Glycoside hydrolase family 3 C-terminal domain-containing protein (Pseudoxanthomonas mexicana), 754 residues
Amino acid sequence: MTRYQHPLAPTPLRVGLLAALLAAPVAAKPPVYATPAETAFVDALMAKMTVEEKLGQLNQPPGVGNNTGPAAMAGNEDQIRRGEIGSYLGTQGAALTCRLQKIAVEESRLGIPLLFGYDVIHGHRTVFPVPLAESSSFDPDEVQHAARVAAVEAAAHGIHWTYAPMVDIARDPRWGRVVEGAGEDPYLGSVLAAARVRGFQGDDLRKPDAVLATAKHFVAYGAAEAGRDYNVADISERTLHEVYLPPFKAAIDAGAQSIMASFNEIAGVPMHAHRPLIQDLLRKEWGWDGLLVSDYTGVMELMPHGVAANREQAGALGLRAGVDVDMVSQIYVKDLPAAVKAGRVPMAEVDASVRRVLNAKYRLGLFDDPYRSCTPDGARERALTLAPEHRAAARRMAQKSMVLLENEGDVLPLSKSVRTLAVIGPLADHRRAMLGNWAVAGREEDAITPLEGLKAALGDKTRLIVAKGADIDSQDTTGFADAVAAAKQADAVVMFLGEHPDMSAEANNRTSLDLPGAQEQLALAVAATGKPVALVLLNGRPLSISRLKGKVPAILEAWFPGVEGGPAIADVLFGDVNPSAKLPVTFPHNVGQVPIYYAHKNTGRPPSEQEKYTSKYLDVPWTPLYAFGHGLSYTTFRYDAPVVSKKTLVPSALQQQVSVRVTNTGKRAGEEVVQLYVRDDVASVTRPVKQLRGFQRVALQPGESKVVTFPLGFDDLAMLDDRMQRVVEPGTFTVFVGGSSDRTREVGFEVADR
Ligand code: GLC
């Protein structure tokens, strides 16, 4: 069988040619490369540095008050004066960062400025919806803008470096950190990784509102066995390359200046000691020369992993693997100077990492302007924090992030002239739930709750009856009576149920995907009143709510929607905004189906209800409760049959166009996320039944239709063959187009074998 390799696929000749090309200016989208001026500056500076000062640049202690991991000794000012700190974790605020910067620049021997790193994951003080919510928007421009707003605020607070975007693909919703990423799909994850990098870094790193982006956690952190955070990831090389690596490559191609290593091992090798993936793949094959930082005490954790007997060995392994910056454990700065002087750790390895730290500071312009965030009275910080346009962006993002899962009988949108509205549930007025778990600098007092949003939208002409009904996570049902009584008195009911924000994110894993506590029973009791009931979910992972299907007519997935979550929920509930988001992650019927994702393999015995001996379950359907890409609207859309521009592609012209007419067949204007999936029908290795290869948001007035066109090229049709070479194999392909991965129309074409 003939295989068509990418025009630039690495072969000996091509690698040689590419190396020659790299000497010349490279076309758009190169990985980060040091310019001659940068190299000369850094060379000259390094020539003056002692071993201790070099290792100091690799040291990143936590700042005072950092709260993103186990407590650890903060880096002190005398260490700055001795040149033993290169950057700080978790220190922010223009006044504090400028004071520390002044010590570094004016009181240390070489005056090398500090980098201030911080977890700005989905907003700084203007907290946006959690990343899984933002990803539900399928709107890269909006996601990029959210990251831009976060960078502007973070930079005003003295931050140079955010540890975001988190780009880990997650296919096990028991894992708490599913909330932090873009869900289960490498294509969507890659598009959004690039958008977030562009947003954080802006168009010029030397601008005072640019922050270094960090693609994390490298790599396959989301493959933690049993969804238990920090657990082993035992995956095939194919899965590593097809599922977990692509978002990192997309982040690097978008110019990401930093990558954070992950806590997990892959097949026996902890990532903080993984030379093949860091030195050989990231550095050599992908040519990336950015800054690789440990995750928290990841270097020190090589000891409990059982690959290092002591701190020096852990440090030596980390440095040799290419972990440039040692966050928190201070091993590089305390345990390696003697090892370097004794020749147990090569100076060349130290120099390689020091160079990358100094490159980063150079690229930010810190050697020219170390006080870029220091306005005398913090005026810039005050002017930009929670600025009205930032809150407006957060509200818009939240509106676009809410997924309408069910809407039987068009219960939604509610009318604002409703006379009596029951507001039920433990999350109706839960301020912290608006922020989610990783809103480090976020403050509860900045958030507007759903109840407050409803009151603002309805004014005083609607009577609200508020009943908590149940706790988030207890079996206490004594509140049910009040909740049911409230529902019976009302014309309509809105319930706010879900998870506590501390039930997802780091180390917050669950073995159940059910609504916690007695919330499901509460929902069923309220629904049994027969009133028009809408359920708003506030949660950080897919939930197994199949027992509510058919009982609760309207279900809106709002995730943790940020400081403007309350108003945005009201905007959607009353129809001021027509929901348009789609699920970036599959919702299972129950946790027993996990892992379950749309891009699954067909197997030799694909599931069939008619055939016993096929791949399915006895107790639940083999299909999900809600599929990847699912999301309803207050209007309806019709897809005509898709058409391709060519029924046969020839090897020299692997370009295809797929067009589909989409019509708004309802009575309201609405936006539809049109999704395109591809299947390689027969190949030299098994292929997923479909893979996302394009999506477009299209706005349509009632009755309006538009033809949406998708280009398909080599990258969309390529696969890794049995030799792990990226090729397009001849044969037939099927294209699926629709409003969800499980509701599509299809068309075929073929790639000729010559
Ligand atoms: C945490 C997280 C990582 C975060 C880092 C610094 O352990 O794993 O995502 O950026 O430490 O807070």
About this structure: The chain has three domains: 54-380, 401-593, 637-751. Confidence is low (pLDDT under 50) at residues 1-29. DSSP finds 22 helices and 28 strands in the chain.
